[in-house]
Structure formats: structure tokens, C-alpha cells
């Protein structure tokens, strides 16, 4: 069986790693190559800290194709990805295409495969914010309706698909990001020196990330968020690894309140895991970081008006604060731990289950 895996953004590199490893494990167990994986990197994230560092640090295999699409308006970027991905699929003639998450890379990969009548497997299917103004929401809805196999990370995601009439090929498997975290958290503790770099003490700092277009493309929202971060930094150090889009958006309009608001370049995955696990509080508009905060049982304030990961809110570990500075500061000051419910995102076996279902798919 030949699989083409299409990735292009930082979270997808993390998610694809455990699945590729599970495919290798299947081949080793069989004593033969039963599944061939062709890895395609669209180039959606392209600088070292957002892309290559993950391949270097996590030992991911080098992409078989690097499409080098880069950034650009949504339509132009997605269209160019679609064109170049289609060329690869025509050449490789895979039995199935694997896509991850909700980026333009996800949509382009699913569209290219569907138009060539190649079955699509969507990992992290069924997520819904119910906000169609988000590009990610459009990407995930369309991808789900194009997919033959839909791997839902939670019961909520599976129910979302059922409500939309998608019942064939849906499998509740758990979350591959949890698989990745279980594998790499000890490595992060052993290898990362990020706490020493920023002179941080465990549980005495906050970590913040801002990258969603709804925040970076809206100057009023962005100013509100950074006003709140500056206020919070009066009480504790706040570390903000800046996505390139965010750095460009804030420009000279945001200045440091003092040295306790640390604006830095993007950090590696292992550094991020350690920063998350040792922080007192996480503030983010990232879906992946919301989940990792929950995995580490660190209270989270989400800088959005809604979330796909409603389970983290329902259990009390996550609070929605939007971009209102007063609401963000108030949520940060009322930090509290949530409930320890039964595992919501699986038990770290999602990747193995996905590989079993993909390789057993009729074809």
C-alpha cells in the first residue's frame, strides 16, 4: 500500500511523527514493507524555527517532496498548493492520502486527492468552532466532507460529524498530539535549556502564544491582547514566542512594559513542551496549545471567543476570554485547576489505531 502524507505547518509536523513511526513499526513487525509512505511538505511554514527544526529535533524523516509554496493570501496559497500537490499525486499514484488538521495545506491536499478519486484520510476530523469567519473552520468542514476515513480525536468531534450526516468511515481514535507528547516530554526535560535561557523559575511565569488570523489581522483585538499581556507581566514574567505573522502585525505598536514581558522568536517543540509543562498559566489562541495545557494540567486562558476543544472548558482547565484586555487579565488572576476526568483524548494509542484502519481500508 502506498500512502501520501501531506503536511506543511508546525502542528502537522508534530502530529505526523507518531503516525509515521507507527507505519514503520507495522513494516518491522511484518518483516516486509507493507506500507510505503511518501511525505510531501507544502512549505506553508518555511523558516527554520517553524519548519526544519522539527525534522531535526524530532528525528522526522526528510520530506520526499518539498513544494516550497510559502506564504500568501489564502486563495493564492491554497491554489498553488493544489496545483503542485496534484502533480505529485499524479506521479505517485497512491492508494490513499493522509491530511492533518485544518490548514490550507489540509484543504489543498484533500481537494487534490478527491479530484483524482484518491481516498482521503483526515486525522483530527470533526472539530468545529461553528465560526465560519475562521479560515480553519472552512478548511476542516470541507475536508471532512471529502474524506473516506475520518479519525475523530474526541466524542464531541464524532458527534459533530454525525450531526452533519457523516457516519461512514468515522472512527474515534484519540488524539495523535497526545501520542507525541507522551513520547517527547521526558526528552524535553532532558535536552531543553529554555528555562535557563530566559531565567525562569517553574510555576512563576506565564506563557502566551498568538497567531490566529482573527487576532493578528485585527489590530484592535491584537492591541487588546498585548495590553493584557503587559498588565499580567506586572505580576509575573510572561514569555511570548512570536509567530512571524504576529511579529509583523505588532510592529512598533507594541512595546515592552518591562523586562518581564519577553518577546522572543518561535521556539522548538521540545522547548515549547518544557515551557508549557513548567508554566503557572498559559494564554493562547492555538488549538494545539490549549490541548497541551490540558495534557500537562496547566490552567489555560484562550484568546478567542470560541474553541473547538470544548472538553477543556467543560472540565474547568480552560477559560474563553476573547481579546478583551479586562476579561483576559481577570481570567489570568483567577487561575484555578479543573477536574481530572477520565481520559478525554485517548490513552496515547491513536497513531497505532490510525495505521491499523488505514492499512485495512478496502482498496
Description:
The protein is an alpha/beta fold and 363 residues long. The protein has two domains: 2-175 and 346-359, Glycogen Phosphorylase B (Rossmann fold); 183-333, Glycogen Phosphorylase B (Rossmann fold, 3-Layer(aba) Sandwich), CATH 3.40.50. Helices cover 47% and strands 15% of the residues. The protein has 16 helices and 13 strands. Helix 11 (244-250) links the parallel strand 9 and strand 10. Helix 7 (176-191) crosses helix 12 (269-278) and helix 10 (219-232) runs parallel beside helix 15 (325-333). The longest helix is centred in the first third of the chain and has 21 residues, at 10-30. The protein is globular and about 60 Å long. The termini are close together. The model has no long low-confidence stretch (mean pLDDT 92).
Rg from C-alpha positions?
A: 20 Å
The low-pLDDT segments are none
Q: What is the N-to-C succession of helices and strands?
A: EHEHEHEHEHEHEHHEHHEHEHEHEHEHH
CATH architecture of the largest domain: 3-Layer(aba) Sandwich
Shape: globular
Approximately what portion of the residues adopt beta-strand conformation? Answer: 5-15%
Would you report the number of β strands?
Answer: 13
CA-to-CA gap between the ends? Answer: 9 Å
Q: Biggest sheet, open or closed, and with what strands and sense?
A: 7 strands, parallel
**Portion of residues within helices:** 40-55%
CATH superfamily of the largest domain: Glycogen Phosphorylase B
Amino acid at each position: 500500500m502506498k500512502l501520501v502524507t501531506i503536511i506543511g505547518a508546525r502542528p502537522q509536523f508534530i502530529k505526523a511523527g507518531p503516525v509515521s513511526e507507527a507505519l514503520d513499526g507495522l513494516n518491522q513487525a511484518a518483516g516486509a514493507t507493507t506500507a510505503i509512505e511518501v511525505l510531501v511538505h507544502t512549505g506553508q511554514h518555511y523558516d527554520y524555527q517553524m519548519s526544519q527544526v522539527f525534522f531535526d529535533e524530532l528525528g522526522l524523516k526528510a520530506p520526499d517532496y518539498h513544494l516550497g509554496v510559502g506564504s500568501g493570501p489564502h486563495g493564492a496559497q491554497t491554489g498553488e498548493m493544489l496545483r503542485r500537490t496534484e502533480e505529485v499525486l499524479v506521479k505517485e499514484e497512491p492508494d490513499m492520502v493522509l491530511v492533518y488538521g485544518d490548514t490550507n495545506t489540509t484543504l489543498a491536499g484533500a481537494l487534490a486527492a478527491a479530484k483524482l478519486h484518491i481516498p482521503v484520510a483526515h486525522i483530527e476530523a470533526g472539530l468545529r468552532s461553528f465560526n465560519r469567519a475562521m479560515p480553519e473552520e472552512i478548511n476542516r468542514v470541507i475536508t471532512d466532507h471529502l474524506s473516506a476515513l475520518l479519525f475523530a480525536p474526541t466524542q464531541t468531534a464524532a458527534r459533530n460529524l454525525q450531526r452533519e450526516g457523516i457516519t461512514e468511515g468515522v472512527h474515534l481514535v484519540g488524539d495523535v498530539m497526545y501520542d507525541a507528547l507522551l513520547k517527547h516530554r521526558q526528552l524535553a526535560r532532558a535536552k531543553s535549556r529554555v528555562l535557563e535561557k530566559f531565567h525562569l523559575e517553574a510555576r512563576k511565569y506565564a506563557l502566551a502564544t498568538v497567531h490566529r488570523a482573527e487576532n493578528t489581522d485585527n489590530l484592535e483585538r491584537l492591541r487588546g491582547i498585548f495590553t493584557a499581556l503587559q498588565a499580567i507581566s506586572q505580576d509575573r514574567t510572561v514569555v511570548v514566542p512570536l509567530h512571524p505573522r504576529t511579529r509583523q502585525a505588532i510592529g512598533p505598536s507594541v512595546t515592552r512594559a518591562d523586562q518581564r514581558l519577553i518577546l522572543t522568536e518561535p521556539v522548538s517543540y521540545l522547548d515549547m513542551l518544557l515551557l508549557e509543562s513548567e508554566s503557572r498559566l498559559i494564554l493562547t489562541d492555538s488549538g494545539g496549545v490549549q490541548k497541551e495545557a490540558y495534557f500537562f494540567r496547566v490552567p489555560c486562558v484562550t484568546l478567542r471567543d470560541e474553541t473547538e476543544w470544548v472538553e477543556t472548558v467543560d472540565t474547568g482547565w480552560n477559560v474563553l476570554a476573547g481579546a478583551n484586555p479586562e476579561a483576559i487579565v481577570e481570567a489570568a488572576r483567577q487561575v484555578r485547576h479543573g477536574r481530572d476526568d477520565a481520559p478525554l483524548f485517548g490513552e496515547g494509542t491513536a497513531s497505532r489505531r490510525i495505521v491499523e484502519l488505514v492499512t485495512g481500508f478496502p482498496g
